[in-house]
Amino acid sequence: MKGKTKERVSYFFTHLFLIIVCLLTFIPIWWVLLTAFDKRVSLVSTEFLIYPRNPTVDNFIQVLSHPSFVTWLKNSFIFAAGTTIFSLTLATLSAYAYSRFDFPGKKAGLASYVIYMMLPTTAALVPQLLIVKYLGIKNSYLSLILIWSAANMAFAVWNLKGYFDTIPKSIEEAAIIDGASKFQVFTMIMLPLAKPALAITAIFIFTAPWTDYATSYLFLTDASKYTLAQGLFGWAADFKTVSWGVFCAGSIIMALPLTVLYLVFQKYIINGLTVGGVKG
Amino acid sequence: MFLHTDVSNINDTVLTKKNRNSLFYRMKKNRMAYLYILPAMLVVFTVSIFPIIYGIGLSFFNANLYTMGNGTVKFIGLKNYVKALGSIDAEFFVVLLRTFIWTIVNVFAHVTLGLIIALALNRQNLKFKGIYRTLIILPWAVPQFVTALVWKMMYHEQFGFFNQFLGLLGIEPIHWLSNGKIAFIAVIIVNIWLGFPFMTMVATGALQSISREYYEAADIDGATAMQKLRYITLPLLKPAMLPATILGTIWTFTNFNVIYMVTGGGPSKATEIVSTYQFNVLTRQNAYSMAATYSVIVSIILIIITLINMKVTKALSDEGVE
Fold this sequence. Notes:
The complex is a heterodimer.
Chain A: H1 2-37, H2 58-64, H3 67-100, H4 106-118, H5 125-135, H6 141-166, H7 169-177, H8 182-193, H9 195-211, H10 214-219, H11 228-236, H12 244-264, H13 266-275
Helix pairs in contact in A: 1-12, 2-12, 3-6, 3-9, 3-11, 4-6, 6-9, 7-8, 11-12
Chain B: H1 2-12, H2 17-29, H3 31-58, H4 65-69, H5 79-85, H6 91-121, H7 129-141, H8 144-154, H9 161-168, H10 180-208, H11 212-220, H12 225-254, H13 257-262, H14 274-284, H15 288-319
């Protein structure tokens, strides 16, 4: 009997502890939701609320009809989707070759990606700026899609190669006996089998351009090419023209797609990160 | 890059005709492979590696907006490196030291909190596990950039959440971001909040893979809860937690978003760490060569951390724990 009470008390404290932790993690998120979904007269929140007093979606309507915000959203999507499609295609092709062919130079090629991850990437910024200016592609979608693609390539290649390695070779061999070409094997057998790894890698690549402020700040000087990160950074620094409610609604729009994806794929993402080794 | 090694390989093996034939044969047989890897290699080399090498080169010159404008860029050897690390008073040295403090405090808090929460979540008959877990990993799932901006607003001295909350309790407002020391604590709080869920997730995964049998055997031997933790749980968590910790160390060391979004490195450079400092040197002072120098130094530190990582991982697998 005594042991049971003792256990109950210890479970009570475990619950108490976890409730406190949950409160701490949830308060900032709740605060953003409150600010976004509550109607305030003033630009900033001047009173302390625990639940919305006047629930409204006005802030979302305002932010989605704000011409600049729509431009940023469109630009961020083009940059992120472009980078994802471009680098995922190249990385998948590479990873397949590294996983399935035994060609001279394979080890050197793979090792060069590891070395590449250790190089001082930020030292490249000034030369990259000079090159982009020289080629006359400053403020173009292409310039930053290339830069973000290159930045994510090493991780993507290693991650996908690791996954391809786990697919048994016997499946392909059967297809080759049936007369399929290597390319057919790649597109019709390997790619469908690698769907989960492709999805995770795509989420990772997409995150970089979607949330990168520093690179867009350096490379994009034309307001019509600004990204969400640049736009919201500007809004956060300027409470005089943009209300906190509108800013929070914008933040939610920027964060929601990725948050949902990360929650849904959490297990795979954690595995991909810790098994995929050190990402520089 | 790899093509060069292939060519030299061919030269090395020129003596034995048989080998050369087999190498050529292998290259020919696998020529599709080169087609597959070439586009990615080409993009990485032209867009990244070539500029990086150029950038490393820049760190030995005196390039900035002024010297590049009037064509007086010249080779100055290791002067930039001496300027960065030459004296303990040097600004960069202070920033570097602060980065180490920032990294150690954060990673220690991430791992400890992550472990304790994972252990609590792992209790056998705990109810509402799913709800707790989802709420606890939320900070990890929300993009860091957005979180950092939101925290900046919460720290707002007049209208932010914290000072309003303190006001309700009748406590004087705190100068979260205008006092250097408090600002540094404020950004560390943000980063701890952001980082512990990842460690919780890694530890939870590892805890679930520990067989109950170990604990049952320990119970028969009359082990206390502390002994079970020390001799079963922690040693078996090591193979998962160690790589995650090293990964976390690298992420924290190079973190840019948290500090840049919340304080911008201020007030008066009091919260500057290497990544933000480097960015500010580049964008505010246009000191291209100095920024490149800092970049190279940071890279060398990261390579050292990675080498330690590889050694530790190897030691672990030699022990047979992996």
